[in-house]
Amino acid sequence: MTNPDPHPTEELIACGEDVTVEVLVPREVPLGGPRAMTVRRTLPARHRSLVGAWCFLDHYGPDPVSETGGMNVPPHPHIGLQTVSWLFTGEIEHRDSTGVKAMVRPSEFNLMTGGRGISHSEVSTPETTVLHGVQLWVALPAEAKDVEPGFDHYVPDAVRGEGWEARVFVGSLLGDTSPVRTHSPLLGAELLLDDDTTMTLDLDPSYEHGILLDAGSLTVGEEDVEPGELLYLGTGHHRVTLRAGIAARLVVIGGPPFGEEILMWWNFVGRTHEEVVAAREEWQAQLHRDGELVTDSTLVQPGRFGVVPGQHLPPIPAPPMPQVRLRPRR
């Protein structure tokens, strides 16, 4: 998914002081156009930009496609990050410049590595009537930020207990471990709780965690969480008690504090102003022919981001750079 903000602000993100418990309230962001989908974004937030290496979290739906038009995101670039798609309802066609064409379906994990540069598109299928899910970004550590782009797909088995069901798509939780390899330690899982269910979740105390409530009612420890909110738990938690009054669906993410500063602007994760500017210029160079913006999907010089095969939608131009040098927004 692309960041649709026409004037994205830069953010210098760092591992800061630990906060034991914090509730992040989502803000609504339209993906573009009068009938566009609206997503609820909890990361990055004004006072917290990372949970482990997770640096971006969009939550959407359930949206009737007949009203919103569904997801229709043309080719756009990424560097220095990985994208994670996890659906609850609906189906999305993913295409990228490595030649991958994959269907994103409920309970199936899709991980795209941008690395040194990739472009991709995401379009909900004609058969999709309701679209509902999350998309997240993972910041790549310095030693891996320029890796070759790629794509991984994994279908986790359900792990069940009394009144609950979980699917661990990355990392380890509830005795299950995902085989997907990542460039930094990560945790990602979907958890379903029945009505009036209480369970204890054992946590890695070296991780910080985020718990996103999709639907239902949830109390975590002594903290009530509303649908759409992300509860942040700092390091040092060995376990947490979850209580669902009404059947709840939640997404649990986590990882050790990232420990690096990263500059995030539009769809790019870099370390310096110059790195982000260079990536933008290279993407814009792909989109122009004889000085004019290309209005179809044909690019003259694919460059570092490549071309998305079989995609007729014209690529998304980058927003203008700010008139000042990108600086930290702490």
Put the structure in a nutshell.
With 330 residues, this protein is mostly beta strands.
Descriptive notes:
- This protein has 330 residues and is mainly beta.
- The chain has a single domain, classed as Jelly Rolls (Sandwich), CATH 2.60.120.10.
- Helix content is 5%, strand content 45%.
- The protein is built from two helices and 29 strands.
- The strands form seven sheets. A seven-stranded antiparallel sheet has the order 2-23-20-25-18-15-14, with no helix packed on it. A seven-stranded antiparallel sheet has the order 3-4-5-12-7-10-13. A four-stranded antiparallel sheet has the order 6-11-8-9, with no helix packed on it.
- It is globular and about 65 Å long.
- The chain starts with 10 loop residues before the first strand and ends in a 37-residue tail after the last strand.
- About 3% of the residues have low confidence.
Residue ranges: pLDDT <50 for 5 or more in a row? 10-19
Gyration radius, to the nearest Å?
Answer: 19 Å
**How can the largest sheet be summarized?**
7 strands, antiparallel
Strand portion, in percent?
A: over 45%
Mean pLDDT: 90
Number of domains: 1
Distance between the termini: 25 Å
| Derived structural class | mainly beta
Family: Belongs to the pirin family.
Domain Pirin N-terminal: 38-138
Protein name: Pirin family protein
Region (Disordered): 310-330
